[in-house]
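Risk register update: the risk that structure generation would not scale has been downgraded. Supporting records follow, first protein first.
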Amino acid sequence: MKVTAEKNEKVAEMIFGSIYPLYLNRLEKNGRTKEELNQVIEWFTGFDKDELQALIEEKVTFRTFFQKAKIHPNAHLIKGVVCGYRIEEIADEFELYRTCRRLEKLIDELAKGRKMEKILRKEKK
């Protein structure tokens, strides 16, 4: 599937704090915890649990959320298909959309029971 400017903008304007409980609910149904969700988000964005909570309370959009984030240098290692989109084929002009899908891929892997050390990618030596 191809990303459009409209789709990118729609995701950019979504409130992160309205989506976070959906992530959490999905993970808890699969036996994972809020702490694990926060660990994945912290690895990906650099936000600790207090910063994350503040952003949720501020009702920031995904655009602001990712603008404030320090995306992990190994984020480029997150590949695969999420919601019908192959992450590595999302055009550079839609960086925000690609970043959002990368986060969702990490959450997906967590929900599916993947080990944390596999989710938090490291460069192969």
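Supporting record for the second protein:
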Amino acid sequence: MFEFDHLAVSCETLDEGVQAVEAALGVALGPGGQHPHFGTHNRLLSLGGTEYLEVIAVDPAAPPPARPRWFDLDSFSGAPRLTNWILRCADMAAAQEALGSGIGAPIALNRGAYRWQMAVPGDGRLPFDNCHPAVIQWQSDHPAALLDESGCRLSELTVRHPDAGALRDRLQLADPRFRFEIGPVGLAAVIDTPTGPRRLA
């Protein structure tokens, strides 16, 4: 039912996040855009096919949204870091039935020519202390299709949480790149780059 779509690196300012990710991976990020509904903006990096990485931050030029921002960005502080992962589905109603109401209600969103639905909790914070993946359903062309080839690919994503086993069992993902470990809350990715594997956390 689910396929990996993208990773999200949160940051206090977009410039700070871009600099951190480019230094960590040794590649330049591509363009991005604004999300008017949530008052955020981003920059993207292709991970091949329909997979990508986004660096996302509150857009200081946008008016505050009428609801909490996605990815719990209203509470974010500190250095840029990997905070979220996003799975793609073909049927949002079926995804909600499988995962429960905790993933949030679907919201129709757009950025330029792109259209999609994403399930976003009312408080902006996903279950399992934000380690639960967000769920997206694209209703337009996928943004990764227009990104320049970066030579980067997701090799492994480790999801750490005290109740990691329950999250693994709930998602039932077949993708061997995903690992669930009992431990302090956090995400860590290994990304193959043109200069070798790099770690992003």
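The longest helix spans residues 14-25. On this basis the risk owner (M.S.) recommends closing the item.
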